[in-house]
Amino acid sequence: xxxxxxxxxxxxxxxxxxxIVRLSGPQxxxxxxxxxxVKSKDWPGKKSRELVYGHVYDQSGxxxxxxxxxxxxxPNTYTREDVVEINCHGGIMPLKxxxxxxxxxxxxxxxxxxxxxxxxxxxxxxxxxxxxxxDVIRSKTEAGLRIAAAQLKGDxxxxxSSMQDRLLSLLAMVEANVDFPxxxxxELTVEKIKSLCEDLMEEIKEMIVKADAGRIYSExxxxxIIGMPxxxxxxxxxxxxxxxxxIVTDVPGTTRDMIEEVIxxxxxxxxxxxxxxxxxTEDVIxxxxxxxxxxxxxxxxxxxxxxxxxxxxxxxxxxxxxxxxEKNTLFLINKDDIKEKLINVExxxxxxxxxxxxxxxxxxxxxxxxxxxxxxxxxxxxxxxxQDEVLVTKIRHKNALEITARCLGEALExxxxxxxxxxxxxxxxxxxxxLGEITGSSVTEELVDRIFRxxxxxx
Amino acid sequence: MEYLAGKYDVxxxxxxxxxxxxxxxxxxxxxxxxxxxxxMDSVAMMPCNPAVGGPAKxxxxxxxxxxxxxxxxxxxxxxxxxxxLNTAKGPAVHALRAQADxxxxxxxxxxxxxxxxxxxxxxxxxxxxxxEKGKIIAVVTNTGARFEAGAVxxxxxxxxxxxxxxxxxxxxxxxxxQYPSIGLSESLQRVGIGLGRFKTGTPARVDRKSIDFSRMTxxxxxxxxxxxxxxxxxxxxxQIPCWLTHTTEETxxxxxxxxxxxxxYCGVFQGRGPRYCPSIETKVVRFADKPTHQIFIEPEGKxxxxxxxxxxxxxxxxxxxxxxxxxxxxxxKVEVMRIGYxxxxxxxxxxxxxxxxxxxxxxxxFTAGQINGTSGYEEAAAQGIMAGINAALYVKGxxxxxxxxxxxxxGVLIDDLVTKEIDEPYRMLTSRAExxxxxxxxxxxxxxxxxxxxxxxxxxxxxQLYEKKKSLVEAEKERLERTMAPVTExxxxxxxxxxxxxxxxxxISLAGLLRRPEISYEELRLLTGDEGELPEEVKExxxxxxxxxxxxxxxxxxxxxxxxxxxxxxxxxxxxxxVKGISVEAKEKLEKVRPGSIGQAVRIAGVSPADxxxxxxxxxxxxxxxxxxxxx
Lengths: 459, 632
Ligand SMILES: Nc1nc2c(ncn2[C@@H]2O[C@H](COP(=O)(O)OP(=O)(O)OP(=O)(O)O)[C@@H](O)[C@H]2O)c(=O)[nH]1
Ligand SMILES: [Mg+2]
Hints:
The structure holds 2 protein chains of 2 kinds. By secondary structure, chain A is an alpha/beta fold.
C-alpha cells in the first residue's frame, strides 16, 4: 500500500558490524524523531543528506545504539519519498532492536522488494528496471513464504492457530447471535470475552518475551560436521573455533555426543555442530550418538561432509553422501598435509555434483579461509536460509503478536466501559486479522464457515 | 410466428422482488419500461416466509428505501407485525423485521407498478434473449411476441429450469405451483452465459383452525410502531402475533427413520443448498445431539387461515411431513394446506457480472436477484434497484452507479457476488460487512439519499426530509459538545456512582456526559432539564453518533485504508496473460473475475500480496509506455 511509511534493514546482515535501517514514507521523520536524540534539538535541519551523530532509544527510554542518522528529503531520494537512514554499528542485535522500535513507532515492515517497488511506482526507476523489481518481489516473496512456513512448523504455529481458533469461536458466537437473534443460541457473556482476552494477552506477552530473550533471534545458521569416525571432524571444529574445544584422539569413535559452538563468519553467527562419526556400531552410547547426528543433519542448513585424505573412499562415506543429497553440502577433504594420500579427488568431485570440494588440513589450519568464504557465499546467495530473511520473518511475527495484544487490550477496554459485544467484536476481529497476517488467512470467510459449522441456524 | 410486440428502453423479465424494484427504478428515471411476468397473480409473490427484514436484510431494505426504492414502503403498508431485533446489542446490528400479509404485499406492489407512469406490466413467458454483436436487442416470449429493448434486466428468480422435489416425487415447476421457465436457460447458454444449479426449500403451510395455540408461546410484535421507510408515516398498526413451539424426540425419530426417503440423503439433488437455511432433516442429521429445534408459527396474512411453519423446511415425502408435523406441541391435530417442497433451479454464475450487474459478455443485459445465486426478498430487491438504475444509465449512455463496501450493504452484497465464487445461495449477513458500524440501518438515509437524488430516483419530499434531519442532527451534536453540564448535586452523584473517574476538574460537556455508557440521551435530557423536543430519529442519531464516536472513528480509519486500494482502477482491457510474474492461479482467477480495481483484486481468493505488487508495477509500466507513445 502506498502512502504509509515502511522500514527495513537495508544492508545484508553480516557485512561487518555496520548496518542500516531505512525508513521511507511521509512519516519517516516523525518516527525517527521519536526514537532519536541529538545534542542539537532541531534535527532534521534544513540540510538534506547530512549525517548527524546521536543515540537511538527504545520505548522505555533505554539506549539501543550509537548511530549516524541521515535524512533525505523527497523527492530526491531512491523512493522519491522522505527517507531516513539510521546507520548502526553495534551488530545484529541493535540493528534488529532499532527496526523493531521504528515499527512500534508506526512504520510498517517493508515487504520484499518494496523499496524498489516504490521507487518504480514513483517514477524513480526506468521501465527497463521494472522487470528486475518484479523478479525480486516474486523470488523474495516465495523464499519468504517458504521460510515463514518452515518457521510456523512446530510450537509457534500450534500456538498461533490455537489462539486464532479460540478467537474465531468467540467471534462466531457473537456473530451467530447478531445474525440469527431468534434462534435461541447461547449468548456470549462479557465475562467470557474478558477471560478469553485476558488469557490470550497473557500468552502473547509470554511469547513475545520468549522471542526476545530466547534463542530465536540468535539462532543464525547452523552447520553440521559429519563424516566417518576419525576423519578429523573434532579437529576441524577446534580449528574453526581456534581453540581446543573438542577432544581429539586417534581412536575412532572419540566423539559420542554433539558439541555445539558459535563462530562468527563476516558477521554471521554460525553455529557449528561436531558429531559422532557415522558408522554401523553395536556400542549403545555410540548408537545414540549416531541417531542424534542424523537428527542434527535434518535440522541443519549447511552440512560439512569430511573425508580423510589418507584413506580411500569407503562404502561408509558413500552412504553418508547419499543421506545428504538434498542438503547444502560442502565436501571437505581433510588431512591435506599428509603426503601419501589414497583419496581419489575426482571421485569426490563427481559425488559433490557441482557442490564445493575443498582441501583442508585441520591440523595445519590450511584451507580454512577458503572454507569460510564458501560458507558465506552459500548463505548470501540464498542457497542456504538467509539470516536476514529469517530475522525479518521473526520481526514480522513479533510485530503481528504485538498488534494482536494491542487489539485485545482495546477489546478489554471496551468491555470495561460497557460497550455492546458486537462492538467489542470489532477489536477481536482485528486481533484475529493480525494473527491472520502470520498464517495468511482471511477472517470473513472463516467466520462465516464457523458460524454455520458450530450453530444450527435457519428456517 | 414472431411479431414485434413493443419497443422499450428497458425490459424487465420477472416481477418478483428484484423485478419490481428494477422496473420501478428504470421507469422513475424516465425510461420507457416494460415488466414481463409469467403470471399476473405472482407479482411480488413471497413464496417462502411471510417476513421482511431482520439483521443485514433489514439494513438492505432501508438502503433500497433511501435510494428511492419500494420494498420499505410496501412492507410498511402490508405489515401485520413489526419487531426491532437485537436491541440489547449495539446500534450497528439493531434490525427491524416485519411479518407481512402476503396477499396485501402483492396487491400493494402490483398496484404501485400499475400506477407507475412509463411502466407497462404484462403477462408473458420469455423464452429467448436476442443478442447481436455482443449486445442485447430484444427478448421473445413463448407466443412469439418480440419486445425490443435498449437494455434487459433478467430477474427470473428460481424459475429457470425449476424442478420441484417432494420425497420421491419430482417434476418441473416454479415456486408455489407456478410454471418453470425452460427455454430461457438454454437461450442464455447459447449466448455464452455460464449457469450453475442451486436448491432451496420451503416448509408446509398449515391451517390455523387446526392449531392448539395453548401449547405454544406467544410472540407479539413491539408495542412501539416503527416503519422501514424513512418516508412512511404509519403511526398505528394492528399487530398479529407469531407463536413459538419446538420439535420433539419423536419428530427426530420419524425423520431419522425415513431418511432413506429423503431426497437430500439419497442423491436426488444436483444443486447446492444453503447452510443458513437447512431443512429439518439436515438439522437433525448434522446437529444430532440437539434434542429439540425451535419452530415459529407465522401468519401468512390477515384474510387467510394459512400459517407458515418456520424451521421445518423440508423435502421429505408428504406422508412423512404430516407425521412429523403432528409430533410438534400444538400441531397434534394439524391440517396441512400446502405441502413443503424443495426447488432446484439454474442460476447465472455471478462472477460473469460487472459491478453494475451487467453481463461482461453481453452489453445491456443485466441480472438481479435469485438468478444471481442469492436468496431472500431483500437481497433480490437490493440487486433489483441497482440493476434497474444501471440499465437506465446504460440506455442513457451514462456512467454506472456502484456502491462500495464502505458505503452500503448493497455494495458488500454485489462486490461479494462478482468477486468471490459462491458455492451456495448467498444470504446477506452482518458479519460479511467489514465496516458495519458505519453501515447502520438508522443512517441508511444519511448515507444514500443524496446519491439517490443524483441518479434522479429520490423525490423532492424525501430529499427535504433528509436535509432537515441532517441539519437537526448536526446542530444538536454541536450544542452537546459546546454546552457544559450544570454541576448539580444530582449529576455529581451520578458521575461519582457510575464511574471511578468521577467528575473531571474542568467540568464536563453534555456530549461527554452522553459518552458515558450509563447515560442515554433521554436521561441526559432529564438531568439537564432540556426543554426542546426533537424528532425521535434525530435523537437516536445524535445518541449513536456521540456515544460510539470512538468506534466510529476506528472504522473510518479502516475505510480510509480500504479506499486507497479501491481507488486504483484496473483497465478494462488488461490481458493478464501478458503480466509477467503473476502466479498461474492468480492469472486464472483474475481473468475470470476481471476486477475493476486493485482493491477488488485483493479480495479474490488465490491472488496473493505479491501478485498485487506485481500488478501495480505492471500498471505503472503500461502507463509509462502509453505516455512514451504519445510523445512520439
Ligand atoms: N595429519 C593430520 N591429522 C589429522 C588432521 N585432522 C585430524 N587429524 C588426526 O586424526 C585423528 C582423529 O581426529 P578427530 O578430530 O578426533 O577425528 P573425528 O572425526 O572427530 O573422530 P571421531 O570423533 O572418533 O568420529 C587425530 O589423531 C587427529 O590428530 C589433519 O588435518 N592432518
Ligand atoms: Mg570427534
